[in-house]
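User: Predict the structure for this protein chain, please.
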Amino acid sequence: MSTLSTKAAPNGSTAMAPTFLLVGMPGLSAVPSWWTIPLVAVYLLSALGNGTVLWIIALEPTLHRPMHFFLFLLSMSDVGLTTALMPTLLGLALANVHAIPASACLLQMFFVHVFSVMESSVLLAMAFDRALAICRPLHYPAILTNDIVSRISVAIAFRCLGVHLPLPFLLAHMPYCHPQTLTHSYCLHPDMARLACPGAWGTFYSLVVVLSAMALDPLLIFISYGLIGRVLHSVASSEDRWKAVQTCAAHLSAVLLFYIPMILLALVNWLELPLPPPARTLLSYVHFLLPSLMNPVLYSVKTKEIREKILKRLHRRRVGCAQ
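Assistant: Here is the predicted structure, written as structure tokens:
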């Protein structure tokens, strides 16, 4: 793969090149058509599963509650994230296209991070909801009102859009001292910011944005589950304890699916562990694609209300078709 030329700037650095180079799955460039099948399958199954969850929650008045509203936002973020990733993934898989225009790369970077931070924020809100429901069950309806849920939603939207909106403009105007070859199959702002010249203040802003969500959110979720664990430890009835655990099972599984691959990737990068390139690339795919595929399954299986409403709707459709 050849390195793209960049335009020299007066201070010896380079301006942003018109294109970036992406890295595909090592070893699969010779068989791009085979690689397409699992990608398309993952996207279609993710869209079907999350679309079903969105459809059920929107149509069923009994599901218009805080936890289900947060689940609605989680499904929206999953659909948005996979949709933002697919153009470059399919371009690499179908035609082995590694070059992406800078404007398209910045646009993809913006939406990938907006939906990633949206998912992280929603998982944090759901942890707060579960902690409140278990630790303060009598005060739960009075505290988590529709007005509070609306304010949380506005805060999530501001966090996703307001914090990330400056990033494409900062990256577009930063001086670059490295060839503009990325290390992923999609555009991520830490990956793009590392190509900038030392001392570029936009890289510091990029680091703060990443840490504000991807480091703070898991810590707060961990604290929430610490409070839940302390309350459950004092519950005398094993049956009540099991019911409480069941209410958290789907959310906890979603948290582990989202954060464990991300933390492993961060450790590999920070500690410079000798992980083979295919394993590193596969881990990044797992981090971005697996949660959107599995979250609808987890919530359909683990959440009784969602499962029953889906089965009820499907039964109505079968009866209607039979008539």
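DSSP finds twelve helices and two strands in the chain.
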